[in-house]
Amino acid sequence: MPGEVTTFGAYEVTKEEVIDFASQFDPQPFHLDEEAGRASMLGGLAASGWHSCAILMRMMFDGFMNGSTSIGSPGIDEVRWLKPVFPGDVLSVRREILDARPSASKPDRGVVRFRFQLMNQKGEVVMEQTNPIFFARRQSAGA
Amino acid sequence: MYDDIVIGERERLGAYTFTAEAIIAFARNYDPQPFHLSEEGGKATHFGGLVASGWHTGSLWMRMRVEHSQRIAAERAAKGLPPQWNGPSGGFTNLKWPRPVRAGDTVTYYTEYVSKRPLASRPGWGIVFSLNTGENQHGELVFAFDGSVFVPL
Prior knowledge:
Structural class of chain B: alpha+beta
CATH class of the domain at 5-12 and 50-136 in chain A: Alpha Beta
Number of strands of chain A: 5
Strand content of chain A: 35-45%
Shape of chain A: elongated
Largest sheet of chain B: 5 strands, antiparallel
Distance between the termini of chain A: 24 Å
Number of helices of chain A: 4
Helix content of chain A: 25-40%
CATH superfamily of chain B: Hotdog Thioesterase
Oligomer: heterodimer
Strand order of the largest sheet of chain B: 1-3-4-5-2
Strand content of chain B: 25-35%
Order of helices and strands of chain B: EHHHHEEEE
Number of helices of chain B: 4
Number of strands of chain B: 5
Number of domains of chain B: 1
Shape of chain B: elongated
CATH class of chain B: Alpha Beta
Radius of gyration of chain A: 17 Å
Structural class of chain A: alpha+beta
CATH topology of chain B: Thiol Ester Dehydrase, Chain A
Largest interface: A-B, 33 and 31 residues
């Protein structure tokens, strides 16, 4: 229902994972090395912003998409990287439903628009993402 | 640097060929939906087979961007020029995955500079807006987003 808010997940970010993701996808020094991180404006070894997006995806899957009728998302309206994510952070997700409606062109599916906030253990919002997700409808809307 | 960025210029960042192994490895960690984990899992869906997680496609844009910047830095160093330095990004908007990426597809990534302006709130800094894309080997758009990055003046 629009306005509905739920909170879920406890994802511990490890140094090994931060470095592993960065070495594959974002090999900038402040995502790979403690000292380079400290010397940067991030203030320490910090996760790639794309890693934060991937972690949120995993938390969404574990939190509500697994076993649902989700059939994917056409895109992301907005992502804001608000604070660095550091090794040792434990992340949770605050999910708000913005609106839900049947698809105009495809009657077998509905589209729900969400705002997700990824929060650290201090309650700080580290990332915010707004996007629709398609869900198959459990029964056709009929003619 | 801010003055070096030419509005309207399109940079080719690089190309990446997706393998089934890489698609599945990324999905196991970050996006274990059935259509990202196996050919069979994808056959049962509207995708018709294994497709890469959209976040996998996006993360490789970042890698191509970083490697492109590193190549430019090496060329500048060879000419005795100081490194260019781009600041952080605060995020992006309008990210789209118009077509699926499948095993064997080669995606070529681009950045096109759209506009720039100095920041009134932060003297010495500007913000640069870009359209970032990925095209498969048939020239079809598979990925796009509007980016912004802070750049020193």
